[in-house]
## 1
Amino acid sequence: MINSSRIDNIYKQSGRTCVLSSYAIVSHYFTRRLIQDIFSDYCKHFNLIEKSSLSDRYDKHFHDYITINNMRGYECINSLHLNSDLKTFAQGRDQFSIISYKDITENIDIIEPVLISDETLINISYYTGHGYHSVTVYCDAKDQFFKLRDTERVKLGISTNSLTEMIGLLTKSKGSFVADCNLYTRINILNG
């Protein structure tokens, strides 16, 4: 379960930056790194030096990059998390692990208990009927409700009794469906 007081509830994404924004919410929770630092390291990793804002540079590059490389958005973020030498990604690697699932609905019986028992957050990609969007979901240790953090909105948002119910809310619009997800769990290092 998650201490919801550690979830950033101020950051609001600009443009189509939900994939890295959702990752940044997770990384900030575990590492306390600023969300802007994660965007900065993304831009440094790909040598994006034009004078536009960090989010504009990411937005322009990211969607072209995943299309050219025929990859899903989370695959790009996972590669950075696992391979980039830049500080925010390296620190993230030291603090939390990633498990990817191509279909959350087929794995909900595995995922939900982990969200309840471990210090774990999940980013879920879903089709809204107009395009894909990424959000962060977690189980709050305080009240044991599943909560949504959507970086398109400033406040934390929806609470449900189960992950299944949360997915139902995300996909209630005609033509909506959930896609892949990333499960992020704190790495517990035992002192020997």
Note: Strands lie at 96-101, 120-127, 132-139, 146-149, 159-160, 177-186.
## 2
Amino acid sequence: DSFRTVRGDTVTTVRGRADITADRTDLTIDRLEIGVAGAHWRTDAVVNAAVGQGLLTVPRVRLASNQGDLAAQIDYREADGQLAGSLRLDNFDLNLLDPLLRQKLRAGGTATASVTLGGRPGDAELSVHGQLLDAQFPMAWIDSLTVEAQYRAGEVRVDTLGLTTDYGNVAIRGTIANPGTAAADWWPGAALDLDMTIADGDWSFVDQFELEALASIAGGVDGRLQVAGTTDAPLITGDLDSAPFHYQWLHLDRLTSTVRAESSQLALGDLRGNRGPFQLLGRLELPMVFDLLSEPITPEDGPFYGRITVPEDSDLSPL
């Protein structure tokens, strides 16, 4: 009739009934209450569920708390080749994941999202639509993150991925694919075909990587980039527009350039900059060990290459 368990700061209370047969168990849960890490969760209605070999069905369950709501529906029937489910988060406090994952993420923020699961066992399809507000991640404070994406046959199609952070705004769309791999092995070596737009960016974002070659870079930046290759050998190309731009002794009102970042080099080409009437042209190549599986580094021993051209009879007084 009732069951209660206590482990650390987690208290679970269940009241209901289980009908057990040889091939399945039918559950009727009249009440479920979970207290964890200071949050109190409870069901708002009777929950019916069935569990068995290759079977898991939960027509509806909703857990409400003072730190957000979670609603879910699951229908997994291996015999029928059917996989269906959904998950809904409403103003869900991400700090609640810390005790559940046994990790101190402390991302904070609140998530409102809808996740839909379909397809067949071994060939699942997933759709995510959601928004995250006011979260602290290792690389940036996230004012808002909006995502619309689908997963099918080893490919993620990103329709919308928008980030508003303390370093500016980023919008991404495209595909990431690695078919035929298990979930744990999906990201390494995945093929990339993404378009990225940067608006009101800040070069100070790169400070956290402690790249010696870019230690003094500063200013604002906008850009349009294409990300190709794979996660272990990416290729990023596009155009950047920095205003103002500061690098070591160089201080400009504006600098535009092409960019090409690959596994061993960062190249800024077609440099065109000005400070007042003063203008310069050039190219800059920096050594870099770069992939999307680890933090980038710039070897101290080079090789470096730089070329700056100043038109004849230029007035250097603005410098």
Note: The helical segments are 97-101.
## 3
Amino acid sequence: MRKTIFSVVLTVVFSLLMLHCRKEPTPSVEPAEPIVNLPTEVNLGESIVYLNGEVFDGVPDIYYRPFDQLFFAVFLQTKDNADVGQLINLLAFSFLPLRQDNYPLITERLYGIAAYPGFGQIFAEDLTGYTYEVRDKEKGYFNITYLDTVEQVVKGQFKVKFHRTSTNGVTEDLQMPEWLFFEGVFHQKYTIK
């Protein structure tokens, strides 16, 4: 009888340890980049962003910080997730100068010379979701094609690719694939923060 209880307890403890010590998933082969019919421009107040060939319904928050003279473009998507409740996906391009130009992507924070892209997730109000890194930065871009600093209007286009580097121990499905291909166009009024 004691051997049976000991065996059951040992099995349960071993099972719990195995669940807790999960390895990160093995990277898959990179899928082909989707082809999207992205318009060259959209009307004022519109943005179109594609994620892996499908519309990403991110709400734009585009702003300029005069104290450090940096420009930011953020696209925020909020959705309900059956496993974790509210899930926030955030695509951002930061540390740009406020001027019309074509900017390469960078993976280190160099202020005011190029676009620093990032993608992140938040769930359960303050928990970090999957972690992604930029891939093939030389094939990506962030272009400001029109800028009116009096009316605070900006037009632009971007393209960036990310690869998941960690699930951060999250076992729930956060509904985001391993590879992310974003492409978008925007025409928005920006704010000053």
Note: The longest helix spans residues 2-20.
## 4
Amino acid sequence: MRRILILAYGLVLCGCAEPPAHDTTGVVPGVDSPPAAVLLPDYEKLSNLGLLSRKGTVKVGMTREEALDMFVEPPGSYEKSDLPPSIAAPFEAFAWQTRTEGFGMILYQNKVGAAVHEIDKVTPDRLDEVVRAYQSQYGPAFTHLQGRHVEYWFWQSRSQAGRGDHLLMVTKVQAKPNLLNITEAIGTVPVMEALRMTEQSANGDLARADRMLDEQRPKNGKS
């Protein structure tokens, strides 16, 4: 799951991915600086947004155990608990990872401040299924951004103009012809900002991600 590192998404840096084969530290602004304080989640602020799974929906404020009931850790996975560089205590992190799937959380008081699910090497039909499920549940995305290899959908609680408290993101990365990597994430706006999982970060990262994937294209195109 190295493409999220390529796209500068912070939760994978906490261990939801294998380290990249090349240096990507320059992709994440401020990664060598002490993390800025991230506004702690207010779990009294509720939202209908959540991360969809076949077993239920992971929402901000759900306990770690409840979330893991929705995204059950499969046999043979490995676990990590390192926080990404952009987030510090009192937050905690937990992630499990297999060769083709991963699930991770940023936790405060053992409750979800953000959660990310990734699946690798899926077909465009699977992407259509994922996006349709979110559109059916939450309506059209507030923001849709599309590059040559990368595509984003964002939903936000309350209203887009009102900067709702919770943000939902779906991202597609086409690292190989006809095979996609999909990332779904839900979190409070401050935590998602720290993870660079917002439409503002996406606008800045889109061209850079496309360029980096273009550079990889000759090698990946042979596989």
Note: The longest helix spans residues 199-220.
